Amino acid sequence: MAWRIFLTLIACGSMMACNSDNANAVKVNTTPEPVQSESVEAQPVDDSLSESESESESESESEILTQSVPEPECDLESVNLLDFVPWQREEGWWVGEYTFLGADGDPNVSASWPYRYDHYRGFIHLEVIGNSIKQRNVFLYPAKNSSECDSVEDVVGSGICGDNGNEKVFSADQSASDCDGNLSGPFEAFGMTLSTTTTLIGDDTVLYQVRLPDGSFTQNQLTTLPPNDTRVRTAQGFFMGASTYASYYRERKVTKEEFVQLLEETRQEYNILELDYCGYDSGGSPSNVSCDEHFGVALGN
């Protein structure tokens, strides 16, 4: 089914600058003209009323002058995302426990990726560079249950069904879309350009959205950032308005050394062949990159 191409989208608004319309303010004469009349006796002046009117006129003129001053434009190139608390928390190395559910609420079953989605693991490096974020992931999947194998060749690569797990890589990049820490960026997948936006909601909540070329959304993902170097993400997937999947990710921040160690331990636990390390892209096709090339740093394996 067509919606399956979006099952691997995870991640980690439209381009908006902090511009304000520069309306041409018109200064009006707020002082009333004197009323002309014949034989009018002089009336006593109410000092308090005159004072109030004067203050009102002054405030009105001040508001007009304030409105006429344009807000400074947002220089996207000068944005430093590390000025924002959520990006300070999100930058770094992450290890996660994942559960991925299909439209029926059961663990997802993929026709093209014959591995388990009930419990699998993810390893993510999120790097903040000035006004941009670079995210590189590798997801590790346990072998399919032997009882569910149609044949020992029901695998991707050279493994054996029910014996060997496997792994996929994923990449995503975004840049500042305004001066408030929000992001946007295109994502190329299967001949289509999808738009992604990330919106900060306070210091502990991030909303990530992916939309199809027609503008309809295919994913809404909420990230919660408790102040303890953990994060929890839940995503809802859609295709043509119908719910297609849901995910539940529990992640913790680690050092690079812990990242490498836990990655190797999980590979051993899932019995993943070395030939398959970082071997497949989000669509299950050969990635044609090494892990070091994918992450842009030497991982020592």
Automatic annotation (TrEMBL):
It comes from the Bacteria. Residues 31-40 have a biased composition (Polar residues). Transmembrane segments: none annotated. Residues 48-62 have a biased composition (Acidic residues). Residues 31-69 are annotated as: Disordered. Residues 1-23 form the signal peptide. Keywords: Signal. This is Lipoprotein.
